[in-house]
Design brief:
This protein is an alpha/beta fold. The chain has helices at about 40-60, 60-80, 80-90, 95-110, 115-120, 155-165, 180-190, 205-215, 225-240, 260-275, 290-310, 325-340, 380, 395-405, 420-430, 465-470, and strands at about 1-5, 5-10, 10-15, 20-25, 30-35, 125-130, 130-140, 140-145, 170-175, 200, 220-225, 245, 255, 285-290, 345-350, 370, 390, 410, 410-415, 435, 455, 455-460, 475-480. The strands form six sheets. A seven-stranded mixed beta sheet has the order 15-16-17-14-13-19-20, with helices on both faces. A six-stranded mixed beta sheet has the order 10-9-8-11-12-22, sandwiched between helices. The chain has a three-stranded mixed beta sheet with strand order 1-5-4, covered by helices on one side. Bound molecules: nicotinamide-adenine-dinucleotide.
Length: about 500
Amino acid sequence: MRAIEHYVSGKALIGASGRHGDVYNPNTGAVQAQVALANAREIDAAVQSAAKAFPGWAATNPQRRARVMFAFKQLVEKNMDELAHLLSSEHGKVIADSKGDIQRGLEVIEFACGIPHALKGEYTEGAGPGIDVYSMRQPLGVVAGITPFNFPAMIPMWMFGVAIATGNTFVLKPSEKDPSVPVRLAELMMEAGAPEGVLNVAHGDKEAVDAIIAHPEIKAISFVGSSDIAHYIYSHGTANGKRVQAMGGAKNHGIVLPDADLDQVVKDLVGAAYGSAGERCMALPVVVPVGKKTADDLRERLIPEIEKLKVGISTDADAQYGPVVSLAHKRKVEDYIGLGAKEGAELVRDGRGFKLQGYEEGFFVGPTLFDKVSTEMRTYKEEIFGPVLQIMRAENFEEALALPSQHQYGNGVAIFTRNGRAAREFAQRVNVGMVGINVPIPVPVAYHTFGGWKRSAFGDTNQHGMEGVKFYTKVKTVTARWPEGDVGDQSFVIPTMR
Ligand code: NAD
């Protein structure tokens, strides 16, 4: 059985904790590898490696750090096919989606290539007599990232791309469900010229995460995953004096106004609800048509498109989505489908018990559609994270606006309309962090920032863009006086800018 080891100081660190996790191929349901699960000692080894590399890396000028990022981008592009196949084989998403996962991460690396510009401080000439004031952004030290299974390339790159370019050294604790691509990324980073210890990967579960939260040398933690764990990491990490940004779960709504182009909306919805088997934090699992006619028309057009969807193994070029990540997750999604029917929603298409010929043990769930979902249902309140679309009927604009605004999650939302004024008002008033106008999955480009509201994110700063730069740096402000002649004795009074 293939063993997936930690990656510390530019080489494999053989797991010595005695604990391992199974890594599945979700297409076949078979275990394909065993990943080492770190204990506190192995986390410490990764942290010590990063701490040793920090002074030299922080002192490397930003342009040289950017050159490493350029070289890394080129290496990832060169190895795109290998990385995408590896990613699909552990996650289950189709190859095109895996390439998208890697490409969206690379866009953050492209942003990081411009880090010298982003790190420029502020300067005030003549703030007082002979006094100039300037600020600089300095790295924090050793920082850690803890990432979910659903974007094993993009989300690590969101974090280490910005953290390393700004001069920090990094310990990545990727999801133990699909750990191979993060290790390959770290190897490629070394090949690109990053010194040993700048990027380390330690695999693990709660034990490893708790060791990261407790480690005094780790100055900041960036987390992406489900909300309860995000909150746990945020509260314990900040209590330990660390800077923490913790992104959580989601339940994104797509509002369809009566004037929307319904054919386009149906295409967008099918991709956004079922793509990657619904395992995207920016998926659109809830559609809110406004008015009965819009709802009936939409449902009528959706059904044949859902029936046409091709579910297949991740290497099937014609498949639109593949299996979910694990058997436990398949069962969870199927339980939610059963619950939805029990709660009184109309189960229009039922994806339970889906079997793909030749891959009967794979973790597949068929496309599922509910209509007449209402706010008190658990299946509406909670995140399902599977290929399940729920229709929530709203009578008018205000009712539609209230649904995402009052939901516990506030990651993304979309509105479909031809009315610019209605779209503008919606974007201004909705209580959600990322808004799409006729864009079903409004993931911001890398030089803007990514982050939800409410229980979708804990902490003050978003991922990547200038918010990422702020998260991974601290500001130092220098007030310098080079007076002409004698300024007199002012030693005992607070300096003022006279
Ligand atoms: P998860 O919360 O189960 O795991 C995330 C990370 O936390 C993993 O590295 C895992 O090893 C670790 N972890 C798991 N259990 C833990 C515990 N008890 N204590 C400490 N750490 C623990 O999430 P997942 O299933 O890997 O990913 C799916 C979730 O991530 C969904 O809720 C999805 O919405 C969310 N997500 C959010 C965003 C966002 O930006 N808001 C992006 C992607 C995914």
